[in-house]
């Protein structure tokens, strides 16, 4: 899949509980949640996943100082929560505890303190009342439904398999992560890693991805792009780029 396949991607895309609440997630702003069954990453906030096991959920978070986060498309680093992330937490026994942990993380770190006009405490009680109707392995989607109450397209739940898939590489495998902005354009949101295909091709942070293997990507989120790339028969493919600094469009091979 190119340069980045097999490397642990520093994901700052989409899957953001509090994450991409404001549209873009620079790599340096990342926070990560991991469980024994992988969950999701977070930028500008958090993401949540739930272990299929009802016995134990382990959540670990690693954060980079907000002072190191650059502005992007008018989003100042001050938008980041200044709350320190808690240390690793272990929740023993019970699906309701797992649901409460997801709720509590959102309650503490979600940037929009109005919760998009929702009574977040009432949302918790609503879904706590539904927990006993679900088998342990299905608790994750229930958490997803709870997050959907926010009406935030950038706040979502993904299962362990999807998280594992996303961890394999930086989506395009060229050394730089992507994000879809409010204008529906897909951009590189960080400078590519030195020596990567993206860096060698002249990709810069803010450049727009127009096409992947001849397919337009405007309006696609990270999951759509992942699905597109995984279906390609050839491990190498063309990427068409519109530079953000006035340079002419160019195309390179991953």
TrEMBL record:
The keyword Signal applies. The keyword Signal applies. It comes from the Eukaryota. This is Tricorn protease C1 domain-containing protein. Residues 99-134 form the Tricorn protease C1 domain. It comes from Chromera velia CCMP2878. GO terms for molecular function: endopeptidase activity. Pfam families: Tricorn_C1. InterPro entries: ClpP/crotonase-like_dom_sf (IPR029045), PDZ_sf (IPR036034), Tricorn_C1 (IPR028204).
């Amino acid at each position: 899949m190119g340069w980045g396949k097999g490397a642990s991607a520093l994901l700052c895309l989409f899957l953001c509980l509090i994450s991409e609440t404001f549209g873009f997630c620079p790599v340096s702003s990342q926070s990560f949640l991991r469980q024994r069954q992988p969950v999701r990453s977070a930028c500008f906030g958090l993401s949540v996943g739930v272990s299929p096991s009802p016995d134990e959920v382990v959540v670990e978070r690693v954060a980079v100082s907000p002072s190191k986060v650059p502005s992007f498309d008018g989003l100042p680093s001050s938008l980041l929560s200044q709350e320190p992330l808690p240390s690793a937490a272990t929740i023993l026994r019970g699906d309701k505890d797992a649901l409460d942990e997801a709720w509590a993380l959102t309650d503490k770190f979600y940037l929009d303190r109005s919760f998009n006009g929702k009574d977040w405490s009432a949302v918790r009680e609503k879904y706590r009342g539904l927990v006993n109707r679900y088998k342990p392995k299905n608790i994750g989607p229930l958490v997803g439904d709870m997050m959907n109450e926010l009406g935030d397209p950038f706040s979502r739940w993904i299962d362990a398999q999807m998280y594992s898939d996303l961890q394999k590489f930086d989506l395009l495998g060229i050394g730089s992560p992507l994000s879809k902005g409010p204008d529906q354009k897909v951009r590189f949101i960080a400078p590519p890693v030195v020596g990567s295909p993206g860096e060698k091709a002249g990709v810069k942070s803010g450049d727009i991805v127009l096409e992947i293997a001849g397919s337009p990507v405007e309006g696609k989120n990270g999951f759509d792009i992942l699905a597109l790339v995984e279906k390609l028969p050839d491990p190498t493919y063309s990427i068409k780029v519109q530079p953000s600094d006035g340079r002419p469009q160019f195309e390179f091979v991953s």
